[in-house]
């Protein structure tokens, strides 16, 4: 009991110290209420002070709440101060460009970042409103900025927010110009953040310069130029920005490219930080695109497209035997790669270790360079180490980069345009995206991918499962010997298993409390019977899922 009392006293002292330095009156009031509720609120207080949000390669991301283990004005002030000091220490010159989405707190966090930058003597350029993440990534390159900050939690739950950092060419180099940070920059920024003293001593300058709409116009013009201006345009598209910030930019890009303006799900057309029509604002989640599919049905659309809330991801649904089917990220990834290859786009084609092996087979057959990386676009855009210019990159989590010189990150708007270009071209020939997928399967075999994804409340479940698969690695999968068992520690918490016809990649999610196992079975097509090969592949993946779940103790 005495030890518990001492721990609580220590926690109270830490909280009082934080409260005295917190610049936000609302957060101070929130934290004071928690303190006044002790000892009944001890668990809540302990969680808020379990540790600071760590600045990693995805920046910051966490729940909106007072205290060091949350996203709030104090944490953002500290992060911005550390970032601008790190930029100065590296000799970085030029403005900091700042973007934000429509989540709660995003505008205030962006404004505070600008004040910290100007207070340190660095120009701050704010995007002219809540805009997609790809617009910020574009702006870093377009404006020659030393770095960029995007305040967004992407497709996380409504109660979250986040803070992503991009570097310009001066500090990011040619491959990382306008790309998310990678080590050792993340560790350097984290160290600079921890070295920030009392927030009251962080100088705050003017609000910074709000950029004009001409920047957004430039993004839209460059995005529209990704597709062939002479190609077919007869295509009816249904679209949802999923309560996010992609709607105005995507529809403008479609119009600029000569497509009809997509029909937009009215209930989800405007940004809304509560995301009221979905249980989880991620187009991959069950039910998230139900309203989109309903709109596509009502309007007789040829194609249904969804962005996630910050519009860096793109989901695609197609009509299949009278109903609508969401294409997997690997299917869209292969379709886009094949389309670019057929258009004669040369250079490096890249994906990640958790994506399908189909892109590797396509590149090999067509004599194009290929590389695969760890998960995340910060690695994809640096694929190949610069030996070949990047032509295209994708990851199975609905992220696609079809124009690396435009946006050196995933971009759900240019991806949607390119899918529309492909679909319109096929429609003009009386065919569909599914027909093209069948052609690829006939040529390279059915590459059927699925995911075993388990969301947890207790992160120890993930650690235990990873320890279990390392301690008792299966010797066989689907009755075939495991020919490769790779453990990527200490570089990455990833285990890879391969047989002659199957592959499994197991890792914790980098942004959510999830354990993920990426499953793939390659089934040859015999006698031209693609449907039979697909059926065999689906059955094999179901069996593989059960084997991996057992091996993980799930």
TL;DR?
The protein has 554 residues and is α/β, with parallel strands linked by helices. Strand 15 (390-395) and strand 16 form a beta hairpin. The mean pLDDT is 96.
Structure in words:
- It is a single chain.
- This protein has 18 helices and 23 strands.
- The relative contact order is 0.08.
- A hairpin with an 8-residue loop joins strand 4 and strand 5.
- With 554 residues, the chain is of the alpha/beta class.
- The mean pLDDT is 96.
- Strands 1, 2, 3, 4, 5, 6 and 7 form a 7-stranded mixed beta sheet that branches. A 5-stranded mixed beta sheet has the order 9-8-10-11-12. A 5-stranded antiparallel beta sheet has the order 17-23-22-21-20.
- The protein is globular and about 75 Å long.
- InterPro entries: A-D-PHexomutase_a/b/a-I, A-D-PHexomutase_a/b/a-I/II/III, A-D-PHexomutase_a/b/a-II, A-D-PHexomutase_a/b/a-III, A-D-PHexomutase_C, A-D-PHexomutase_C_sf, A-D-PHexomutase_CS, Alpha-D-phosphohexomutase_SF.
- Residues 454-523 form the Alpha-D-phosphohexomutase C-terminal domain.
Largest sheet: 7 strands, mixed
Percent strand equals: 15-25%
Count of β-strands: 23
Estimated structural class: alpha/beta
Low-confidence stretches: none
Report the average pLDDT across residues.
96
Helix fraction by DSSP (H/I, runs of at least 4) = 25-40%
Treating each run of at least 4 consecutive H or I residues as one helix, how many helices?
A: 18
Shape: globular
* C-alpha Rg (nearest Å): 24 Å
- Amino-to-carboxy terminus distance: 36 Å
